[in-house]
Amino acid sequence: MAKRATAEKRPRRERGSLNPKDIIDGAFELAEQVSLDNLSMPMLGKHLDVGVTSIYWYFRKKDDLLNAMTDRALTQYAEFVTPFVEAENWRDSLRRYARGMRKTFLGNPILCDLTLIRSALSPEAAQLGAQHTEQVIANLVEAGFSLEDAVDTYSAVELHVHGTVVLQRLYDKNKESDSGSTAYYENLTISPDTTPLLAEASARGLHSGAPDDRNFEYGLELILEHADRIIESKPGRRSSTSARKTAAAKATAPKPPAKKASAAKTPAKKTSAAKTTTTRRSSRAATK
């Protein structure tokens, strides 16, 4: 997508009505049009229809403005993606969380640029991020993970999400630029003669190293399966799991029909008793 030289202007602002919130709002609007890299203070002044000195009154340099935008982005991100992992259903909820993170970042390129690529946080934003991570780790520990395994599991999921998102974002930015750069996996020379397996995979729509949906889901499931094996290997965990499976199997298994008392069986018992009595009498007679 070609970059726009200028951005759409807002209606003229009344003198003295500018405030930090309006500046940040305008910066997001402008960044969506010209990208975060091309955002400049003079351009923002034109977009807001104010003198650039009015912006410098609140933000002395672009980095200060970007820091404020990052804080805003993280706050909005927290509203979209709640880092809640249920202890009793940690695998499904962690999967939903990972998918939610990826969907939010892919749908908000500026959010990705601010929090993953640039990633300069204010003390308040840093504290918010730490609290989110603490919440996930605490729920994983409650689910039965050790602290080390909980941190490793969440780190693996987070790195998987962030890595695929950043790769996709860099790929999109290269396509939008005039550099002609492409992704690594698109530069590979694949031929049925020299790389027959890769050629067949490519024909099936399989791309090694591409941050697409298929590769993302495959990697995520591998992480979750490994974490599941870790938690199931804990002492006492296997027995409790087996007990739950046995109980569940018994609960769902069809029950045999109940035995009914049969009137025909009673005479049989009497007949058997009579035979025993007759046998005893015969034995006594033979003895005599």
Automatic annotation (TrEMBL):
- Pfam families found in the cross-reference section: TetR_C_1, TetR_N
Q: Which domain of life is it from?
A: Bacteria
Q: What UniProt keywords apply to this chain's record, in alphabetical order?
A: DNA-binding, Transcription, Transcription regulation
Molecular-function GO terms, alphabetical: DNA-binding transcription factor activity; transcription cis-regulatory region binding
All residue ranges annotated as the HTH tetR-type domain in the record: 17-77
Bias kind Low complexity: ranges: 238-280
Give me the ranges of the annotated region Disordered. Answer: 1-20, 233-288
Q: Please state what the protein is called.
A: Putative transcriptional regulator, TetR family
Organism annotation? Nocardia nova SH22a
